[in-house]
Amino acid sequence: MKAIEIRNLKRSFGEKTVVENLTLDVEKGEVFGLLGPNGAGKTTTIRTVLTLLKPTEGQVTVWGHDVVTQPRDVRQVLGYVPQEKAVDRFLTGREHLILVADLYHLTRPEAKKRIEEVLALVDLSQKADELVNHYSGGMKKKLDIACGMIPNPKILVLDEPTLGLDVESRIRIWDYIRRLQKSGLTILMTTNYLDEADQLCDRIAILDRGRLAALGGPEELKKGLGGDRVTVQFGPQQDRLDELAGSLKKELPFVNGIKVSPASHELEIRVTSNEEALAPLIQRIHHHGHPILAIQYSRPTLEDVFITYTGHKIKEDSALL
Amino acid sequence: MKMILQETMALTMRSVKRLSRERISMVFGLIQPMLFWLILFGNLFQKTAQIPGFQAPNYITFLTAGVVVMTVLNSGLSGGVDLLFDKESGFLERLLSAPISRNSLIYSRFIFVMGITSVQILIILLVAFILFGVYPHSGLAGLAFIMLVGLLFGLGLIAISLTLAFAIKGHGNFFALMGFLTLPLIFLSTALVPIQAMPGWMAFLAGFNPMTYAIEAVRELIIGGWAWGGLVKVLVILLAFDAVSIGLSSRVFHRQVG
Fold first, then answer.
1. The sheet that has A4-13: what strands, in order across it?
2. Do residues A129 and A95 touch, judged by C-beta distance below 8 A?
3. Chain B interface, mutation test: which of A103, A132, A141, most B Cβ atoms within 10 Å?
4. Which of A40, A3, A39 is nearest to A22 (CA)?
5. ipTM for the whole complex
6. Among A96-100, A102-106, A290-294, the least confident range
7. Contact B44, B144 (CB under 8 A)
């Protein structure tokens, strides 16, 4: 049994289809990321998993329970950390946790013990009795995570866990997520930060306009692009670049592909392995009598993956670089 | 059953804690009906008691019943406000993602708002007694019946408010509609003047306003004595009002949250 199985999920709001023909599995014990810009269908997908929305078509099972026919069983195994602000500013941190504990039917002694545990987990024990009104953004997020952990869930669902947080808080939240995974929890999260997906997720589903654009581990996806990229820039008087590209492809086994840009006098060369490719490559180019103006070596980032699969950048202002 | 009780209690306690931390709004919520209606309005219009056919000894005595029911109206119609804000802040999502009975959300609102309303009624009656010597001539049983009438009317109002909180997009629209509804409901009832003093068409419309019946019952119980026949008729009307609004509310609610 998988932690979550999504089969041919479609969700429409009136005429508008937000998620279309989505099929994916979340394995037990992994951190699975739904990556995509705003409006890609991430939140709709997790709201369906959480039983807050019913699928228009298709099937979703969580820990073996169908979200439509057994919503209560589904809710029982899930912990949910919504996007920011889902706190009541007139309650203290501890009162939030007591409320959530009651909603999951913990007994008084169970609740008391569990609340101390989750407060310690997110370093909020000291501030537990202060009104949430006085909490910083990072503290509210910690409280959100603590609330999500109260039921001792099998799967923790986080919607944009670090949206709008400062760098220090983000890193701390990442740390909690890693710790929770180590303790055996399965984690499903959405993000529109590429670095966050890269850092945290075992596997990623890239969603674009409601459809699955790519699925795999971050490294696997990057490798899928055909290796590292060497961009070689030549002077404007250089011609016969096509000829050079042809020879390099023949002579060097580690070259996977070359893109020629005559207008900018550039070769974009995809190479299999690592830096070892660079020296022989430069040598061969010199051998063919082409002086190099500049050379740039780069590993593919998740951003490259995203562009390759969706044909556009993830929304500029949302990518934290 | 035990689970629903635990959920409902937890959600009700949340509202109680919130209230205890919003003291200013609590105090003003309580003072407003007394200062504005009972003291200012009551004194301003005391000559109304000279209208022929007026049965109360003075206008304040007459108005007290109106103020009691108007307070029920205000509290009841704002009963959905917290849910509306929870919906907008995303807190409702957190509640709904928990394995709770959806009805617990509704039950906790009913319990909380009706609790507040009961306290408000008692305070208004106490102030009316201290300042103006007005008290229910029907005694303690009469007081109990005043509370019953208030709560039965409040029940249907809370249901309407919850329905609107779910059906309407945005709290701006919600408050606009509430403001639009409140005054006509008050003026098309016998809260401020007896039915004999109203223009014909208004008196006619007031006959369809459940508020009129709640006020008549409370007024009867305050001014003196009580007629079982009239009281039973009012209780039946209010129960019918509750049944209709709760039926409507439950349909809208379950369509929204499943």
1. A16-26, A4-13, A57-62, A65-66
2. no
3. A103
4. A40
5. 0.87
6. A290-294
7. no
Q: At what angle do helices A137-149 and A93-103 cross, to 10 degrees?
A: 20
Contacts of A229 (CB under 8 A, 6+ apart): A268, A269, A270, A271, A297, A298, A299, A300, A304
Single-letter amino acid code for the residue at B136? P
Q: Where are the beta strands (DSSP E) in chain A?
A: 4-13, 16-26, 31-35, 57-62, 65-66, 78-81, 155-159, 186-191, 203-208, 211-216, 228-234, 255-261, 266-271, 292-298
Half-sphere exposure in the Cβ direction for A254 (13 Å, CA)? 16
Kindly list the residues from chain A whose CB atom is less than 8 angstroms away from the CB atom of residue B21: 90, 131
Residue B75 tokens read as 């509290």
The CA-atom distances, in angstroms, between B128 and each of A216, B67, B123, B205 are 73, 10, 8, 29
**Considering CB atoms only, which of A72, A80, A99 is closest to B14?**
A99
CA angle at residue A206 from A173 to A189, to 5 degrees? Answer: 25
- Helix then strand then coil, % of chain B, to nearest 5: 80, 0, 20
Residue A39 carries which DSSP code? Answer: T
* Cβ distance of A71 and B100 shorter than 8 Å: no
Global pTM reads 0.84
Handedness of CA B27, B29, B33, B35 (dihedral sign): positive
Compute the CA torsion angle B146, B149, B150, B153 (nearest 10 deg). Answer: -170
- Structure-block tokens of residue B54: 């007026």
Per-residue pLDDT of B173-226, as tens digits, reads 999 998 888 989 999 999 988 888 889 999 999 999 999 999 999 999 998 767
Burial class (CB in 10 A: 0-12, 13-18, 19+), A88: buried
Only one residue has tokens 């073996």, namely A64
CB A173 within 8 A of CB A145: yes
**Could you give the dihedral angle defined by the CA atoms of residues B45, B46, B50 and B54, in that order, rounded to the nearest 10 degrees?**
90
